[in-house]
Specification:
There is one protein chain. This protein is an all-alpha fold and 90 residues long. The protein contains 5 helices and no strands. The protein is elongated, with a radius of gyration of 17 Å.
């Protein structure tokens, strides 16, 4: 079996895309943790305010998952702002 160069390019591009997704999920989780700690609230308190599980907050902060749009919005509101403010350290 031979491997076509175009297949290698596709594999490389898929790996880069996955790496970018992982980086963005890790970045998002770190920003959520940073804002939560700045507000001096626990994961449990944030989860209760956002209406999601504490485990969900833990996974998002660790970068294990990114959360869907509704979850992200709930977290942003619970942190007292919108996503732009959270990512701009406001």
């Amino acid at each position: 079996m031979t491997i076509d160069v175009s297949d290698l390019v596709k594999i490389r591009n898929m790996a880069k895309e996955r790496e970018m997704k992982t980086d963005s999920v890790n970045f998002f989780g770190a920003k959520i943790r940073e804002k939560r700690e700045k507000l001096n609230i626990t994961q449990r308190e944030l989860a209760a305010q956002a209406g999601i599980s504490k485990e969900g907050i833990t996974k998002i902060e660790r970068g294990d998952r990114g959360g869907n749009a509704i979850t992200i919005k709930k977290i942003a509101v619970a942190l007292g702002g919108d996503l732009i403010l959270i990512f701009n350290d406001q």
